Amino acid sequence: MSIMPPKKNKSKNNNGQGKRPLFSMYWMYGLIIMSLLALYYFQDGSQTKNVDWTQFEAAAQNGELSKIVVLPEQRTAEGILTEKAAKKYHFNTQNGVQGEMKLNTTIPSTDKIQEKIDSWNAALVAEGKPEIQVNYEKGSDLMKLFWYFGPVILIFVFMYFMSKRMTGGAGGGGIFNVGKSKATVFDKNNGTNVTFKDVAGLHEAKVEIEEIVEFLKNPQRYTELGAKIPKGALLVGPPGTGKTLLAKAVAGEADVPFLSMSGSDFVEMFVGVGAARVRDLFKQAKEKAPCIVFIDEIDAVGRARGRNPNMGSNDERENTLNQLLTAMDGFQSNNGVICLAATNRADMLDKALLRPGRFDRQIYVDLPELTDREEIFNVHLRNIKCNSKLDVEKLARQTQGFSGADIANVCNEAALIAARNNKDAVDWDDFMAAIDRIVGGLEKKSRVITDEEKLAIATHEAGHATVTWMIKYGNPLVKVTIVPRGRALGAAWYAPEERQIIPTQALLDTMCGLLAGRAAEDVFLGQVGTGASDDLEKCTKIARSLVLVYGMSDKLPNLNYNDSSGQDMGFTKPYSEDTAEIIDSEVKRIVNEQYERAKEILRKYARQHNEIRDLLVEHEVIYHDDVEKILGKRQWKSRTDEILEINRKESRPQIGGPAPADDAEGDGTPPPFNPHPSLPREG
User: Fold this and answer.
1) Staple 411 to which of 100, 183, 380, 647, CB 3.0 to 4.6 Å?
2) Rounded mean pLDDT of 455-466?
């Protein structure tokens, strides 16, 4: 599944996306700077001393005051001392202190203050001293109140805006609106630019999802026949397959409002917030009906009840789930509201959430098959300048098991590699390097490998290539390399077959191919190394699945000890200790049998193995054609080639049969010998 990068939408949605926040830390920095400047300019450096009226009157009569400021409303007076008088009253005039020296007193009577000042001035004039200047001012406590209570007000303002930011800012609604939903609303004015044309592959899923959109556009076409609109649809599939992209396409195609929200948006630090947001979400949906509600990653709140790891304590997530169940199909009807949801953990969801009436349909969005991958490549290559000889079908065949997101990453990585090498167009080598980079990691050119280590790595990888080539269900070989990538010192790259049902022999062949590297070291070097740890881990998992899940063991046939519901939580085992011993013995037997089988094949084709090994040591990378020259053509035809031939004869639009039945889903099926990095670094 894939999509062209959407164009930027210049319109602003109803939630205020695209607007600058109402408050930022820069406002707080500005307030602090302004406060410091105010302190600097308003603080004049003056010193004041409180005295009684008698001392104040004596100072005035002695000519020690140059100016008197009278504040009648406060019944106070301030007298500014002369420089000579400052020492008498013990003011600090050292260390460069500048400013006026003032005497502050309380006036006994404001009615006769002017008469007193006139008598003082008359006496001073008679003695030849300068008169005292007098000013009457109307006092105000506003500035004092600001200096007293300003810091407290600033602290409260800061706390309010910080709480608003922590609970979502303008979109979250602040601390008092924490129960409001955070749904993003898309409509005709601010919808997405993604449509069903941008969705490559997923033909069956698009048919089902398009039907829901068509029902909203033309409901009479269905209601005339008595059909009811589906209440909801659940998109299920592995990560990166395009579940959210399908929902975006619905938002772009539908002529009705589209409310989008993530499952984690319901979870909050406050108790009851999740349930409140569910109520608010469906309240908005009813007001805008007909509309579509989309909940991405619904497993964040929809996990089955009773699996609480808190051992009986209150679980806010379960309260949110209960409210969601009631809102989707409770006593109150939600006519015209369709709920879409996406998850890659459908097995963890509560059964009450999956029943008809809540989610009437489960739409499986699987990994793309061959023709789907070719369509996805064509979509992503539109904006990439590629070589005209690029074979897109061959690219699709080289990326089996890749999701739509993986393919998008391959295309982008290939373009980056071509630009790094100053190429005019992206060619085949760039795409192969991109696939190697994504699957195996970055090439380690600085890693030093001795000749002995190089021989051991080549022996190991040649063992994989030889055995896999000679077994029926071995995956088609792409290339073998001993160039270090990531944690791996070497790798054998294969194109995994896309099988709907895996037979027993296919699993055994996969195990044989995995053990071939260790077997080659044992046969040709006489000793084994730590490089096969990844192969042994995969092999052991397949062997345990054979015994515990698929019932393919001779001693324990037709028994499945796997708990797909996950309710046992690993505390109990569904079998006895005696059965556990049988399981261990069967796993050991199966692994040992395939190990000996791999050694027999290698002894039989020892000459060819050594040729491949020597070619690897010389060239470091060899391809399918190089191995075919040494081992000859494979006697078993690739399943992918057979299906391509059938599709060409029948002119079918895509490869692959119908989806497997429930008893053939193969939950927990080990991957069929995917391209694996072997020989990881020790430790």
Assistant:
1) 380
2) 92
